[in-house]
Amino acid sequence: MEPTVPELPASQPAPQPSATTTSASTVESSVSFWEVSRGAKPELWYKFKRFESLALLNLYLYQDELVSLQRDIDYKNGEMLIEQRTRLRTLTKEYYEAMQLFKQTSQLKRPTMAERKKAIKSLQFTLPLTEDTHRDHYRFAADALGMVDLTPQALGVEPDAIRVILGGDDTLANHASNVQTRQPPTTSIFRPLPVGPITDNVARIIMAVFAGALLLVPVIALSYITPTGYRLLATCLFVLAFAVIASVAITGTSNELVGATAAYTAVLVVFLGQTSSAG
C-alpha cells in the first residue's frame, strides 16, 4: 500500500486592512504628499522610512547571483563568455554600490522612538495612498520603525548663529518668503532660514577672522606668561573655551567637533613646548 501524503493547508490570504483604516474621519483629516512636503505635517517633515529589510534583501539577492556566477566561472576554470564578463562587471559594481549606499544610510541620524511612532501613525492614517491595501504596512512591517531624520539640524547643514544674526535679504530669501506666503493659513511652516551668497560670504569672513583670533590670542597671552604652571593653566582654559565655543558655533558631527578640539589643543601644546624649551 502506498503511503498517503497528508494534504497541506491552503495558504491563507494576506490580512486586509480593517474598516477603521478608511473611516470617514480618516479621509477628512488626510493631506496630500504635496502638502506634507511643504510642512503641513510637522511630524513627517524631513522624516523618511529606511526600508532596511528591503535593502538587506537586495544585498542578499545580489550575493546569491554573484555566488551562482562564481560557481559557473570556477566550473569552467575561469573561461567566460562575453555575456558573462559583462554580467560579472555589472553585478559586482551594483553590489558594491548597494553596500556603500547601505552604509551611508545606516550612518544617518535617526529620530527618537517617540518621533518615529508619531510619524508612522500619521503615515498610516492621514495620507491619501494610491492603494489602501498597503496602508497598514506602514505600521506593521518588520522594519516599520526604521526611519531617518533629514532635517538640517540632523544633517549638520543648519545655518549657524552668525548666519542667523546676519539674516539674508537676497534672492533666495525673497523666493522662500514668497513661497511661504502662498501657503494656506492652516499650513504649519517651519522652513529653515534661507542663506544667500552675500550673507554666506560675509559669514565666512567673520568666521575666518574669529578662527584666527582663537589661535592668535592664546599665543600672544602665553608669550607674556613666564611660570610653567600658569602657562599650563592658561592653555587648559583656552582649550576649554574653544571647546565650548566650537560646540555652539560648529554645526557638524561629534567626530568633527572632537577633531577640531584635538587639532586646536595640539597647536597650543606644540607652541607651549617650543617656547618653554627656548626659555
Structure report:
- This protein has 279 residues and is mainly alpha-helical.
- Helix content is 62%, strand content 2%.
- It has helices at 24-28, 33-37, 52-75, 82-106, 113-126, 137-140, 152-155, 161-166, 171-181, 197-223, 228-249, 254-278, and strands at 47-49, 147-149.
- Strands 1-2 form a two-stranded antiparallel sheet.
- The termini are far apart.
Topology of this protein?
Blueprint: H1 24-28, H2 33-37, E1 47-49, H3 52-75, H4 82-106, H5 113-126, H6 137-140, E2 147-149, H7 152-155, H8 161-166, H9 171-181, H10 197-223, H11 228-249, H12 254-278
Antiparallel strand pairs: 1-2
SS-derived structural category: mainly alpha
Strand order of the largest sheet: 1-2
- The number of helical segments is 12
Task: Give me the count of strands.
Answer: 2
The rounded Rg comes to 29 Å
Helix content: 55-70%
Catalogue the unreliable spans.
Answer: 1-28, 169-192
Compact overview of the structure:
By secondary structure, the chain is mainly alpha-helical.
